Amino acid sequence: xxxxLGAALVYxxxxxxxxxxxxxxxxxxASVAQGSIENRNGQWTFSAELTPTGxxxxxxxxxxxKLLARAGQEEHDQAxxxxxxxxxxxxxxxxxxxxxxxxxxxxxxxxxxxxxxxxTLGRILSAGSxxxxxxxxxxxxxxxxxxxxxxxxxxxxxxxxxxxGTYQERVPxxxxxxxxxxxxxxxxxxxxxxxxxxxxxxxxxxIAAHELRTPLTVLKGRLDLTLERPRDAADYHRALSAMQxxxxxxxxxxxxxxxxxxxxxxxxxxxxxLASSAAAVVETLDEVAHRAGQRVQLDxxxxxxxxxxxxxxxxLVNLLENALKYGTGDVLVRVSAGxxxxxxxxxxxxxxxxxxxxxxxxxxxxxxxxxxxxxxLPLVAALxxxxxxxxxxxxxxxxxxxxxxxx
Length: 407
Fold this sequence. Notes:
By secondary structure, the chain is α+β, with helices and mostly antiparallel strands. The protein folds into 3 domains: 2-115, Beta-Lactamase (2-Layer Sandwich); 179-262, Signal transduction histidine kinase, dimerisation/phosphotransfer (DHp) domain (Helix Hairpins, Orthogonal Bundle); 268-405, 2-Layer Sandwich (Heat Shock Protein 90), CATH 3.30.565. 53% of the residues lie in helices and 20% in strands. It has helices spanning 2-34, 112-164, 179-227, 233-261, 274-284, 286-291, 309-326, 354-357, 376-386, and strands spanning 37-40, 43-46, 57-61, 67-72, 85-88, 92-98, 104-110, 270-273, 296-300, 304-307, 328-336, 339-345, 390-396, 399-405. The strands form 4 sheets. It has a 5-stranded antiparallel beta sheet with strand order 4-3-7-6-5. A hairpin with a 5-residue loop joins strand 3 and strand 4 (67-72). The longest helix has 53 residues, at 112-164. It catalyses: ATP + protein L-histidine = ADP + protein N-phospho-L-histidine. Residues 145-199 form the HAMP domain.
């Protein structure tokens, strides 16, 4: 469309320019002819010096259109109406000027050369426009194919990865810093994250199956032992009571696994007041602290953060339970601006083991005799990542503190 409009514009400008050039010639000729008009014995004529060149025609007419004098070509149609100014006929370009005494001077020139030139130009522009459109379409196709070929390669590679499940593959990286390079980099980064997520899920599933297998095996063994021979009611009661503890541990383990799995769910942040959440959790675990011979002290300052209420409560429960299980003496729960901290006595875990303790089912040295699944701290770490918060340990002389700092 742009090419056709450009060709039309060129044609219009060329016609205007050529017509203007012809009009200038007619006007200059009329000016010369006007100075060459003579009246000899009552007869109007042009002086002998007026010799029009080429195919110019000069006529002197009366008001009635009667031819009084002529110079140059004699091809002009005298029946043409007298209208001052420029006009065009099928064969001529005409300039008519009114003179004193009711006379008219008419200068004309055949326009066939101009018409032929414009027709030739029109044909050239039309053919050129069609050719340019064809060339532009071909070039556009070639360029589009060349530009989209890497995209097609990325799509085929991604399709192959999805079909085969070989998430270790990567799309060919494009060189440079253009859009294609950014696309391949983004896709490969996404595949890196996908591979990491899948590997973590596979490892988590293997460890979870192993952790569930042991208590289930023990529970099945006790059931088989109980049912291998008839027993009285008291024996059955003792056996079922012992198995109830195992079932409770399995329920806690399953709930922790579900809570850890839900950390990949869509994020739904809302305002949460840390001080009231901490007070509610301490009240819930007050009996646990009392049985352990410990006290939980509170140092609360109102603090609002963007998080998830259930997740905040579970994180505080896990931190406080760990402090009561593995710490000594009283426990301090402190809430300040955008932060909650749980402080307990004792040396805390080995500093070199801290990164390992953030993985599911990992437990610190010397804690095998303490009830637990190894999911509490990893769940807190997963929730912190989910909220873009920080889980910060701090070791001091005779004390250990874990802080959950919100952005």
